[in-house]
Amino acid sequence: MKRKLFVLKIIGLAVGITLLIAGGFFTYFNLPGPVPREDVALGVTFSVSYARDLGLDWREAYLVTLDDLGVRKLRIPVYWDLVEREKGVYDFSDTDWMLDEAASRGADVILVVGQREPRWPECHIPDWVKDEGNDAYRQARLTDFIGAAVSRYRERPEVSVWQVENEPFVEFFGECPAFSREFFDAEIAYVRSLDPSRPILVTDSGEFSAWTAAASRGDILGTTMYRKVNNPAYGYVTYPIGPNYYRFKSEMLRLFMGRSRFIVAELQAEPWAKGWVADASVAEQYETMNPDLLREYVDYSKRVGFSESYLWGVEWWYWLKVTKGEPAVWNAAKELFQGS
Predict the structure, then answer these.
(1) Burial class (CB in 10 A: 0-12, 13-18, 19+), 65
(2) How confident is the prediction for the chain on average, in pLDDT?
(3) Residue 45 and residue 16 share a domain
(4) 3-state SS assignment for residue 222
(5) Residue range 158-169: average pLDDT?
(6) What is the C-alpha separation between 281 and 264, in angstroms, rounded?
(7) Tens of pLDDT along 23-44?
């Protein structure tokens, strides 16, 4: 009986200590964090395919992003399914044009290559590759595409960073083939061999990952940063984590892995709607993104303190302005970019 009571006390003590530590971390993570870092550079991810899906003239949207908002840092996906619609026939004209316009304004570009790139369905694989239904074939053709893209743009000074794939370790999200770490490592090695002069960005989930797999492979770790989402089971949910959560993870990687470069690759700046965003009412869209939330989330990212934050949703800001007559989010973004 005494032994049993002793064991129960030990278990109780262990549980108590665990809860105390967990409570301490939860409290620390949810502190307001330090004052916002003033020199954080703001940028955007611009997706040709998403702008088209919203019914926009994507070139017009891109130019006003540069000229009206004054954006000078861009993350641009080079979509495999748009560039190589036929085997071995590459059409880089859209990317060429975007880089020319960026260069003429002194903008810097992160160029994303691979099969998994920003925007749904995440993996942008040409139909002629899918028709083969063969992993080895897909990987070989993808390697050819990456080689063509990197070789074409490695002499462009406005391209400052290569991003290889997008959130490759977030395997639960998107319509993608089974993820192979070995092939991903080969992709990174291939890009390095083609252009050893530029750093490689690897991105990962900010909320659901410790970042170790991504950080061990890239020169720069890019995190997502979402604050308020629409969960099918619980409705609108704000993640109960403060800026210190991201700061703590980055400090652990600095301490134990020697990593020193971190950016916010995807800062929530558009709605998390129940379905297709264009089908939702403006009121529903404003539940998870509006001018006040945009300012709040940018302030939050500056409290995290990474050097760059790329906002997610510039196409939606413009769509809201030109199709719904709602310019408030666009104008709030303009104030943020011109004040950064």
Answers:
(1) buried
(2) 92
(3) no
(4) strand
(5) 98
(6) 29
(7) 444 454 555 668 999 999 999 9
Number of domains within the chain: 2
According to DSSP, residue 268 is labeled: E
Q: Say which residues have a Cβ less than 8 Å from residue 91's Cβ, sequence separation at least 6.
A: 82, 83, 84, 85
Provide the 8-state DSSP code for 103.
H
Looking at the structure, tell me whether residues 7 and 82 fall in a common domain: no
Question: Domain residues for 24?
Answer: 1-31
- One domain for residues 94 and 19: no
Residue 46, token pair as written in the block: 């611009």
Nearest one of 132, 136, 106, 112 to 124, comparing CA atoms: 112
| Rounded Cα–Cα distance for residues 324 and 314 (Å) | 15
Domain shared by 217 and 332, yes or no? yes
pLDDT higher than threshold 90 for residue 299: yes
DSSP conformation class of 288: H
Question: Which residue has 């979402």 as its token pair?
Answer: 226
pLDDT at residue 62 above 70? Answer: yes
Cβ neighbours for 333, distance < 8 A, ≥ 6 positions apart: 69, 269, 294, 311, 314, 317
Is residue 5 located within the same domain as residue 61? no
For residue 280, what is the DSSP state?
A: S
How many H helices and E strands in the chain?
Answer: 14, 10
* CATH number of the CATH domain containing 311: 3.20.20.80
Q: Across the strands, what pairs with 35?
A: none
Residue pLDDT, tens place only, 242-289: 999 999 999 999 999 998 899 999 999 999 988 899 999 999 999 999
The SS3 of residue 154 is: coil
Predicted TM-score of the model (pTM) = 0.91
Whether 160 and 206 map to the same domain: the answer is yes
**Pair of tokens at residue 21:** 């530590």
Which secondary structure element, helix H or strand E, spans residue 182, and what is its range?
Answer: helix 181-194
Amino acid at 303: R
If asked whether residues 22 and 93 sit together in one domain, one would say no
Helix 328-339 / helix 291-304 crossing angle, nearest 10 deg: 30
- Amino acid identity at 340: S
Q: How far apart are CA 75 and CA 266, in angstroms?
A: 10
Residues 18 and 124 in one domain: no
Tokens in use for 292? Answer: 């006040």
